[in-house]
Design brief:
- By secondary structure, this protein is an alpha/beta fold.
- It has a single domain, classed as NagB/RpiA/CoA transferase-like (Rossmann fold), CATH 3.40.50.
- The protein is 23% helix and 21% strand.
- It is built from five helices and twelve strands.
- An eight-stranded mixed beta sheet has the order 6-3-2-1-7-10-11-12. A two-stranded antiparallel ribbon has the order 4-5. It has a two-stranded antiparallel ribbon with strand order 8-9.
- Helix 4 links the parallel strand 1 and strand 2.
């Protein structure tokens, strides 16, 4: 009989996997080229073609890079939305992006909406408006299990997304693991898209 993992054990496993995934991602060669391949595949998905309002994350650090493909998305006629973090509350807010010039380099060299534009009513978007959500992450498994930075930013945001809005993660293949431990609050992806294949996740049940 297998003994269930204790919370401390799960935390230790998550920490180890997160460190390994970050190391793998940092070591990924040809990030720009492979990222463009992954983003191009995302933009040909039926879910993308159908969607009118799409959230793109803006890459940070060694994540799959999306900033190079945002101009093409903006030219597509869709409503393109990007998230940004409110430091005081540790929450993600959503911004309607219409031009790349609306983004500036902020903390940690991450592109984010200009402060003076964020509170304009026309620029604020609610999670319920999203038809499709692009999700970053540190590690994934084939069932759509996701491990983020450990602070729950995206878990809290995704809890408010519509049930019919697909959650599609972008990942380098080196971030994929056979299985990652998940908690009750963790949200499963509908698909995980890498440079090698599309993994069909279990999504939200």
């Amino acid at each position: 009989m297998t003994t269930p993992a204790k919370p401390d054990d799960v935390h230790a496993i998550k920490t180890q996997l997160r460190e390994q995934a970050r190391k793998n991602r940092v070591g990924q060669a040809n990030k720009d080229e492979i990222s463009k391949q992954i983003c191009a595949a995302f933009m040909t998905l039926p879910e993308y073609v159908k969607a009118k309002t799409v959230m793109f994350y803006v890459d940070a650090g060694s994540e799959v890079r999306t900033r190079h493909d945002l101009p093409a998305a903006l030219a597509s006629g869709k409503r393109i939305v990007v998230p940004y973090c409110i430091v005081e509350t540790n929450e993600l807010e959503l911004f309607l992006l219409e031009e790349m010039s609306e983004l500036v380099e902020g903390a940690y060299k991450i592109l984010e909406p200009k402060a003076e534009l964020r509170n304009l009513p026309a620029k604020r978007v609610q999670p319920e408006e999203l038809d499709l959500v692009m999700v970053p992450g540190t590690a994934f498994d084939p069932s759509g299990g996701r491990m983020g930075q450990g602070k729950g930013y995206y878990d809290r945001l995704l809890a408010h997304a519509r049930a019919d809005a697909p959650l599609i993660a972008l990942s380098f293949e080196c971030q994929m693991f056979p299985a990652i431990p998940v908690s009750a609050h963790d949200v499963f992806m509908d698909k995980v898209l890498t440079e090698k294949q599309v993994y069909l996740g279990r999504g939200r049940k």
